[in-house]
């Protein structure tokens, strides 16, 4: 079994025990001369599991506004020892500057870090945590749901019902099969691998993936490394699970969409800006591809009058990939432990590897 697989099992099956253990370790090493540290949580709706974990060893404050304004967060940053950064507001050197010498640690409550100036944290050697792995299952489940909904034209069917156009018939609203299909995963990381495991139950014909180098886990998953062009040309379903970087921004565009089958379904559970959305709308309208299932779009939130939302072959949900009770509780607890450990000067449970 690979190291990544061991970590995943550890994180998902033994999380509660692990969190309690690490919390105890953090408590024993907290140095504050009898004075409790103060932690800012940037969103009042953060799960209580994480807040309660913080309150064991720190005083917790929130911005007065909901959602918080940036200026409010920046003003509070200089009054605290740590921050649990909940949401996708830019996290950069400005925050660290306003935090000053008192601020000792920050953890996001997310796996994606495209809104974080990681290079600034690296230069300053500032403790930064995040919460990967524990959301893999929830995001993979959402991805499979979008695959089915888009491929089987669920949104189009709902529109037909709403508009009293339920006509029926042997050729009405025919969708795409999953059994025997070729599935491509762009980015076989933790989420991509979890999607691949889910696909084993669908009797797909072939699993392809792209990446900078072969993944050791790929063999057990039955996945074949191919160039991106080949994946796009051969796949009936394409999943996007790469992080958003300068390199991946708009990697799916007019040119790459044109390489896909007209019967292909695109599923994006990563970040909206990986896809050139205007090019995607055009491809869906003119039949370049069959359909798309999107958990992420650009911008977020998407305006209600956006053209994407008027397309019958686009299934769009509002960034719900990790939105399950247990997943968000786990993310909040890990973020809390990261912050407490960083304040104490001990290794974080889940440090960002900058």
From TrEMBL:
The keyword Ligase does not apply. This is Glyoxylate reductase/hydroxypyruvate reductase. Belongs to the D-isomer specific 2-hydroxyacid dehydrogenase family. SUPFAM superfamilies: Formate/glycerate dehydrogenase catalytic domain-like (SSF52283), NAD(P)-binding Rossmann-fold domains (SSF51735). One of its GO terms (cellular component) is cytosol. Pfam families: 2-Hacid_dh, 2-Hacid_dh_C. The lineage of its organism: Eukaryota, Metazoa, Ecdysozoa, Arthropoda, Hexapoda. One of its GO terms (molecular function) is glyoxylate reductase (NADPH) activity. PANTHER family: 2-HYDROXYACID DEHYDROGENASE-RELATED, FI03731P-RELATED. Residues 47-348 form the D-isomer specific 2-hydroxyacid dehydrogenase catalytic domain. Residues 144-321 form the D-isomer specific 2-hydroxyacid dehydrogenase NAD-binding domain. It comes from the Eukaryota. Keywords: Oxidoreductase. Gene3D superfamilies: NAD(P)-binding Rossmann-like Domain.
């Amino acid at each position: 079994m690979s190291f990544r697989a061991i970590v995943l099992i550890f994180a998902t099956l033994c999380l509660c025990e692990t969190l309690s253990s690490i919390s105890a370790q953090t408590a024993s090493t907290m140095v504050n001369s009898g004075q409790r540290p103060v932690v800012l949580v940037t969103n009042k709706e953060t799960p209580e599991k994480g807040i309660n974990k913080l309150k064991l060893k720190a005083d917790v404050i929130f911005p007065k506004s909901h959602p918080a304004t940036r200026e409010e967060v920046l003003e509070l940053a200089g009054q605290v020892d740590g921050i649990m950064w909940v949401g996708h507001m830019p996290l950069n050197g400005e925050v660290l500057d306003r935090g000053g010498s008192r601020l000792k640690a920050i953890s996001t409550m997310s796996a994606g870090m495209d809104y974080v100036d990681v290079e600034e944290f690296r230069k300053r050697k500032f403790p930064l945590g995040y919460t990967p792995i524990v959301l893999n299952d929830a995001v993979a489940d959402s991805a499979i749901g979008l695959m089915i909904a888009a491929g089987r034209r669920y949104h189009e069917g709902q529109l037909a019902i709403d508009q009293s156009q339920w006509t029926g018939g042997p050729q009405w609203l025919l969708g795409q099969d999953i059994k025997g299909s070729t599935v491509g995963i762009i980015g076989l990381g933790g989420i991509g691998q979890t999607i691949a495991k889910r696909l084993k139950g669908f009797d797909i014909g072939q699993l392809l993936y792209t990446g900078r180098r072969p993944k050791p886990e790929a063999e057990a998953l039955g996945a074949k490394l191919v160039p991106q062009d080949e994946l796009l040309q051969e796949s009936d379903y394409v999943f996007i699970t790469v992080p958003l970087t300068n390199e991946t921004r708009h990697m799916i565009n007019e040119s790459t969409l044109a390489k896909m089958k007209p019967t292909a379904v695109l599923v994006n559970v990563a970040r909206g800006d990986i896809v050139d959305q205007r090019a995607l709308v055009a491809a869906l309208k003119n039949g370049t591809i069959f359909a798309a299932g999107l958990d992420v779009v650009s911008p977020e939130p998407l305006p209600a009058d956006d053209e994407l939302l008027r397309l019958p072959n686009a299934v769009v949900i509002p960034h719900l990939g990790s939105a399950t009770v247990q997943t968000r509780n786990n993310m909040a607890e890990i973020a809390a432990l990261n912050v407490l450990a960083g304040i104490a000067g001990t290794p974080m449970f889940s440090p960002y590897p900058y």
